[in-house]
Design a protein that fits this description.
alpha+beta, two-stranded antiparallel ribbon
């Protein structure tokens, strides 16, 4: 007989990093997700940072490590088909994407 069971979704990104910050092109929507199954130690701190970002209206963290988790890194630039890696912010990544359309 089964005494205990646990089920859950393990969400992953293509670069194995979590997502934290504003969702480009979706005003007022922030994400804090994709902890790849072993991210429980970091998800609580990221949750606090996500709440602070949402309350402040900022798009991405100022913390150097957390800043790299911005969802803007997955924006595709239509002309190149490459992600907007190196964008200084989610807003800059969005502007780069829109200017190429």
């Amino acid at each position: 007989a089964i005494e205990k069971e646990w089920r859950g979704v393990i969400a992953e990104t293509s670069d194995d990093l979590s997502l934290l910050g504003a969702v480009p092109g979706r005003p007022g929507v922030w994400v804090c997700a994709c902890f790849n199954g072993h991210g429980m130690p970091s998800c609580f701190g990221c949750g606090q940072e996500a709440a602070a970002l949402a309350l402040s209206g900022e798009g991405e963290s100022r913390d150097p490590y957390l800043k790299q988790l911005s969802p803007a890194r997955f924006l595709l630039l239509p002309a190149s088909g490459h992600a907007a890696v190196g964008a200084e912010s989610a807003e800059e990544g969005h502007k780069a994407r829109v200017s190429d359309e």
